[in-house]
Amino acid sequence: MAATAENKTPPRNRSQFIRTHIPRTEQFAAMLCILLLAGIGLVIWQKGKNFDPHLYALHPDALKSTAEAVAGKTATIRGEAAQARGVVQTATTATTTTLDGYGEASAAAKPAAKGEPLLMTLAGIKPMGDTEFYNADTLYEKINGRAPAYLGFNFQSLRCRAFEVVGTGGSYVDVYEYYFDTPVNAFGMFALERDPQGAALDFAPDGYSGAMGYFFRQGAVYVQIIASDMKEKTIATAKSIAHVRAKALPADDTGLAARRRLPATGLDPASVQFTAENALGQEFLKNVFQATYNFGGKKLPFLVMVAAPDEAVAAWKAWSEFSGKFGGTITPLPDAGGAKIFQAENSGSWRVIFVRDGTLGGVFDAPDAAKAREFVQQYLEGKIP
Q1: How many Å apart are CA 271 and CA 259, to the nearest integer?
Q2: Which of 35, 75, 102, 354 has minimal Cβ neighbours within 10 Å of its Cβ?
Q3: Residue among 304, 293, 311 nearest 367 (CA)
Q4: Domain span at residue 347?
């Protein structure tokens, strides 16, 4: 029995099997597949090389039904409000109606805004083409994908032009000037796109330099000066152009009073933000500027809102009441610098909020109550400029 077991052939391990011969039929089939794939790729390449503009052409007749008025119903979700502004046209109006980016009927796109050409008497540069102009209806043509954010801040027009840097073998600088309805909205867009790694500028309070250019807010204009490359001469030219445009544009800070009340000490410039409505999700916080500060080894978010004195007090009281909800703890603090102050805690997060002479502000979402109180008190006493 032992000898029989010893001579028994072990079961064959399938993983040890190696094919040494491939039939010609399989070789032929594999070669055929490779040729077919190559042929398909060649056809796709040829089709893509010769674009047919009529392939995706718009057929206006297919949209006729959508231009008709909807009997007994508002044409869009916000159609009634649009009609009140005279935006939605009737069937007898010659102007064609379209849908804007917010699903609301609006008049057909107007021609691009025109204006004064962008000229600069700066040595070493020359225009590469005519000045381009875009308005709210055509901005997407230049910055498609980013346009809605600009329109959200009441963008009015864009003026842009490229300038060749003479003697660099093809380098150039792009100049973009975005015009808004107010300086505060220009700042809002500037702050939204700010590069957190940018270095502050000494010739524009609201500005910074990045690896490829200069960006700043001057009056109601958000300016972008972008170099085509990082050559020393190209970057130097971009900086010179930025200086020229900063001097040429009016310095208007209307609506930015709260921005100027943010202290400079310990400020992280890249953290400055502006919120026009519902700041921190609260409807009573409007036109708010906020930033983050390094104070005593802690990072403290701080905000300021400027309003009529009665509105500021009402907002302060509303915030105090809100802070007491959902288990929050409210503690009135002694007046400091003529301001009324309360402290609130919720789930380990602290806020110290003050109101004084039409200014509402304070630290929020702070990790340390003592540091938050100290910061606000020093601010109110003028010890943090």
Answers
A1: 12
A2: 35
A3: 293
A4: 257-380
Contact residues for 219 (Cβ-Cβ < 8 A; gap 6+): 183, 186, 249, 250, 251, 252, 253
Domain boundary residue, one of 222, 248, 274 = 248
Last residue of some domain: 248, 273, 302? Answer: 248
- Cα distances (angstroms) measured from residue 118 to each of 111, 164, 323, 326: 19, 14, 51, 56
Residue 7 CA, chain-centre distance (Å), reads 79
Burial class (CB in 10 A: 0-12, 13-18, 19+), 29: exposed
Half-sphere exposure of 241 (CA within 13 A, CB side): 34
Query: Facing residues of 40 across strands?
Result: none
Give me the mean pLDDT over the 29-36 stretch.
87
Task: Please report the DSSP string for 255-274 in residue order.
Answer: T-HHHHTS--TTB-GGG-EE
Does residue 375 fall inside a structural domain? Answer: yes
Strands (E), the chain: 97-99, 105-107, 125-127, 132-135, 155-165, 172-180, 199-200, 207-210, 213-218, 221-227, 273-275, 288-295, 298-306, 329-336, 339-346, 349-356, 359-366
What's the confidence (pLDDT) of residue 173? 97
CA-based nearest residue to 178, from 226, 137, 216, 234: 216
User: Which of the pair, 346 or 312, is modelled with greater confidence?
Assistant: 312
The closest of 211, 239, 213 to 224, measured between CA atoms, is: 213
User: What is the C-alpha separation between 152 and 278, in angstroms, rounded?
Assistant: 14
State the pLDDT at residue 162: 97
Domain count, the chain: 2
Q: CB of 186 within 8 A of CB of 219?
A: yes
Residue 40, pLDDT score: 87
Is residue 226 in a domain? yes
* Model pLDDT for residues 125-143, shown as the tens digit of each residue: 999 999 999 999 999 999 9
DSSP per-residue letters across 11-75? PP-GGG-------HHHHHHHHHHHHHHHHHHHHHHHHHHS--TTTT---GGGGGGGGS--TTS-S
Q: Alpha-carbon distance 110 to 373, whole Å?
A: 54
Torsional class of 348: left (φ above 0), alpha (ψ -120 to 50), beta (otherwise): left
The pLDDT assigned to 346 comes to 86
> Tokens standing for 173?
């600088």
Residue 183 has pLDDT above 50, yes or no: yes
